[in-house]
Design brief:
With about 675 residues, the chain is α+β, with helices and mostly antiparallel strands. It is about 35% helix and about 25% strand. The strands form 6 sheets. Strands 4, 18, 19, 20, 21 and 22 form a 6-stranded mixed β-sheet that branches. A hairpin with a 2-residue loop joins strand 19 and strand 20.
């Protein structure tokens, strides 16, 4: 946005806020500084229409009424009731909750909207502290490039069109959908809506949208059916286990299978304590059972049913017979979508910054560095904003009409001193994105019992106050975006005990199942905080076994006890930067290249990849990093012939060797 355009639009806002009647377009042209530059009537109309549209997009409510009683010509004004943020009174515990809700979006698409919402609330005197309760770290991620336009379409009640590739399909299909809402479940975002081509309700995972999402502007608004439960619709896409399999698993192995088993019968042990146990495992379909059991190689064997036993034998045989690696994957074409930067709703421009800055600075001790940090600007740019503000004011534009800004103080001491700005003294009400980001963030806190315990019903109280201040349209948008972290009773109990230890400063002892390895370790941990990210709750703490800060997923904590020792995090050790997610990269990581068939493309959706390239036939070549190559072996064993390890060669060879050892358990009769 050019400096002149910003000045003109700010002068227009001040003019329309200060008038008591609707001003016609011609009156505005003659009165507001900047419109005289239009060379013709047509040029003025284009300029004025564009300014009105952009102001409304920024949340500024321009009213239309009768400007000339004789001619009936339309006029315009801004109602202070619609413009100003309603009064919100928060109790101390409610202010903490609201700060936590905004923090949930810190590294996601709506981070800017949530931060601006807090800025406006502080401008109105609401004591929101975004750094309160430092031990809690709710976090939302919106890595999918399609999140931004889908959010906008849900907000504006507009249909969307996009290319969508279902698991196993070689090519993407064009879909046209009337979106009802967005749901985050188990760390993934889904859009629920009416598929026009199929004439039925459908659920689409945003990570499987290929290319750009087009928001369709023509036609009627989308109507959401009464009583639709978005989260239940998404959860209903997952099949429930209906059958049972009998497995034999090695002692102290296949821990995830053990945790999901209905029954575990210990077998005889040899002199070293090893042996085989028998599991009764529920499963929904045979391919899923095969993938889960095959990933444990020779440490897990299907006994019955016979059909599943034959299927896993065939799966392992195909893995053994796979090629010796990739042939260079000639013709691979980079896939732009997975690596494209996430695009969120439109960012605030210079005008919106100024409309937030003026009420914030009036009567407060605020400095240039603070404003620069909030908006991600240089201090030089903040001073440039202030110099623009100094050129704006009420029509007439005499020294007594203009906003008074002490530019010398801003340049020399960093102080921001603003006067003669009563027209803009009250903060602009929250936009739909800003208010909804906070309301949706509150729902994530429901997964943190320690947040609920701040003052019992603080979550409910602050949610009601925010909705009342934001209006019905925002409440509707917030209801269309559902975020829940699904935890069972055991995980919830583990969370509560971790929160208690964190509050009392006590060390914990964990029996922990590694996410990379099929291995249980004993850990002494000094708790540093609780994190909810990617759909899962974590404990962050200093691990004495590893001598470093680690994140422990709470559903993998097999046992927890509070030790009679005070937690003592070494001096200089701080919490992790989670802006890039829970996964922490290292130069020591092994770089692995996988060639994936269409049925295995989900790997690029569930795991962070350095690069993804298209292969002939709908497959992809994915490159990723891991600190544990053994995890890649397990992944490739589960995928079987749908995955080929192209590099490194030693990992590819270990996959084939382990598949051969597992196949030996099934004997020659397995294929009959």
């Amino acid at each position: 946005m050019s400096r002149r355009k910003t000045e003109r639009q700010l002068n227009l806002v001040i003019c329309l806020l200060s008038t008591r009647r609707h001003l016609t377009a011609q009156e505005i042209r003659k009165t507001v500084l900047g419109y005289a530059e239009a060379e013709s009537e047509a040029a003025f109309k284009r300029m004025f229409e564009r300014d009105k549209r952009e102001l409304r997009d920024s949340g500024i409510p321009i009213q239309v009424g009768t400007g000339d009683a004789v001619s009936g010509e339309e006029g315009y004004r801004i109602s202070r009731t619609d413009y100003e943020l309603p009064e919100i009174e928060l109790l101390p515990d409610e202010a903490v909750v609201l700060g936590l809700a905004a923090r949930a979006w810190r590294h996601a698409a709506l981070g800017e909207a949530a931060a601006n919402a807090l800025f406006k609330l502080r401008s109105a005197g609401v004591p929101v502290d975004s750094e309160a309760a430092p031990g809690l770290s709710p976090a939302m991620r919106t890595d999918e490039p399609s999140f931004g336009p889908v959010w906008q379409a849900v907000r504006d009640r507009r249909p969307i069109a996009f290319d969508y590739r279902k698991p196993g399909q070689e090519t993407a299909e064009r879909r046209e959908v009337e979106p009802w809402g967005i749901v985050n479940l188990r760390g993934h975002w889904y859009v629920v809506g009416h598929d026009r081509a199929r004439g039925a309700r459908r659920v689409f995972r945003l990570g499987r949208v290929r290319g750009e999402v087009t928001v369709l502007r023509g036609g009627p608004d989308v109507v959401v059916p009464e009583g639709v439960d978005l989260r239940s619709v998404v959860a209903g896409q997952h099949a429930e286990p209906e059958r049972s399999a009998v497995l034999r698993v090695r002692t102290d192995a296949a821990h995830e299978l053990r945790r999901g088993a209905r029954r575990v019968v210990a077998g005889e042990r040899d002199t070293s304590g090893g042996g085989w146990d028998t599991l009764t495992l529920p499963y929904a379909d045979t391919p899923d059972l095969v993938r889960r059991v095959a990933s444990y190689g020779a440490r897990a064997v299907v006994v019955e049913p016979v059909g599943a036993r034959q299927a896993i034998a065939a799966h392992l045989a195909a893995t053994v017979e796979s090629g010796d690696g990739a042939d260079g994957a000639e013709g691979a074409v980079p896939d732009e979508a997975p690596g494209a930067p996430a695009r969120g709703p439109r960012s605030a421009d210079q005008l919106r910054r100024l409309l937030m800055l003026v009420p914030y600075a009036l009567g407060r001790d605020v400095g240039v560095p603070e404003v620069a940090r909030h908006f991600g600007l240089s201090e030089k740019q903040v001073v440039a904003d202030l110099s623009l503000l100094w050129m704006c004011g009420l029509p007439g534009y005499t020294p007594g009409d203009l906003i008074d800004v002490d530019l010398d103080a801003a340049r020399e001491t960093g102080e921001i001193i603003i006067g003669n700005a009563d027209t803009l003294a009250q903060p602009l009400r929250l936009t739909a994105d800003e208010a909804a980001s906070l309301v949706v963030g509150l729902s994530l806190l429901e997964a943190l019992p320690e947040a609920q315990g701040l003052e019992g019903d603080a979550l409910k109280r602050v949610g009601e106050k925010l909705r009342a201040a934001a209006g019905a349209a925002v409440a509707s948008l917030a209801d269309a975006v559902q975020v829940r972290v699904e935890v069972d009773e055991q995980v919830a109990d583990t969370q509560r005990r971790c929160a208690d230890a964190l509050a009392s400063g006590q060390r914990l002892h964990l029996r922990y199942l590694s996410g990379y390895l099929d291995q249980v370790t004993e850990r002494d941990v000094d708790p540093m905080g609780l994190v909810v990210q990617d759909g899962y709750p974590f404990l962050e703490g200093y691990c004495h076994l590893r001598g470093d800060v680690r994140l422990f997923r709470l559903d993998r904590v097999l046992d927890l006890s509070v030790l009679p020792h005070a937690a003592r995090v070494p001096e200089g050790v701080g919490r992790r930067d989670l802006s890039a997610g829970v996964l922490q990269r290292s130069e020591r990581d092994t770089v692995v290249t996988l060639d994936l068939e269409p049925s295995a493309r989900w790997v690029t959706e569930d795991y962070v990849c350095d690069s993804v390239a298209e292969l002939p036939g709908g497959g992809v070549r994915a490159t990723l990093r891991t600190p544990a190559p053994a995890w890649v072996v397990r992944l490739a064993l589960g995928l079987g012939p749908a995955c080929r390890v192209a590099a490194p060669a030693e990992v590819a060879e270990e996959v084939r060797a382990e598949a051969g050892r597992a196949l030996a358990h099934y004997g020659a009769g397995a294929h009959r």
